[in-house]
Amino acid sequence: MSTSSRGRDNSLGEFLRARRAEVTPDQVGLPAVGHPRRVKGLRREEVAQLAAISTEYYTRIEQGRLSGASAPVLAAIARALRLDDAQTSYLYQLTEKPGAPTRRPRRRTAPRVRPQTQLLLDNLTDTPAMVLGPSMSVLAWNSLAAALYTDFSALPPTERNLMRMAFLDPRMRELYTDWEDSARACVAYVRMDAATSPADPDLQALVGELSVHDDDFRRWWAAHDVAHKTFGTKRYHHPVAGDLTLDWQILTCPHDPSQSIMVLTAPTATSSHQALRFLASWATQPPAAHPEHTTAHPPHTP
């Protein structure tokens, strides 16, 4: 078995163990009787019973000793573990079964953003917008996105990553009103994306760096929580614009499915919309008006 296959099998086993630890017998109609429970959640034999397969067969799947399981078996395991749509999709991706999204080839060159896409970002003068690549890397942005987050152009390309910034940039902990929710969402999103490119060296370097430097990341990554959301709401406390509640959407670029455009908006006539307009005006001022503009976090005005 190849190294990449072992990596996928390990990920599959870790994911299944993490999920069955979250399901109690009473949730699935099983009696909590028998020998003292040494594991949190369901035992392997209980998952096998619920999925109508043998305990030995399920154990081989979880331990990575089976080259592949049929789609019906995976569907039965997903039902037994009460997996949601995102988790079920992740399960299929880990096993490369039909119906899962096609595995993308590992990118060998730096991703490029089309000039027309950059022009689109720049024309969104009242809307923070950026192009995201794999693992939440920031590939392009407009001036309002830089004003909201940070001057991405001042960062090395390897540090232009929203998940990395969430954990390693102290300013992000102050920027996100609900920092833990935002950081955990980043981890779940990247964990989902990782199933399509487990051997990607950039992803491996990012996970390694964050695992070394942040205990929360290391714990949340090991939990194997996954999510695939394309819209939601985030709350910010910005040092210039104040409090903002922004709706976000992620739109896939038709010319490159590995790239997506994230836009943040606020309903008109709301305080958040006014704050965005103020921030846009601030971002267009000459550097002398706010000498800290390269960080997008100038000192408060008196």
UniProtKB/TrEMBL annotation:
It comes from the Bacteria. Pfam families: HTH_31, MLTR_LBD. Residues 37-91 form the HTH cro/C1-type domain. InterPro entries: Cro/C1-type_HTH (IPR001387), Lambda_DNA-bd_dom_sf (IPR010982), MLTR_LBD (IPR041413). PANTHER family: BLL4672 PROTEIN, BLL4672 PROTEIN-RELATED. This is Helix-turn-helix transcriptional regulator. It comes from Streptomyces pulveraceus. The lineage of its organism: Bacteria, Bacillati, Actinomycetota, Actinomycetes, Kitasatosporales.
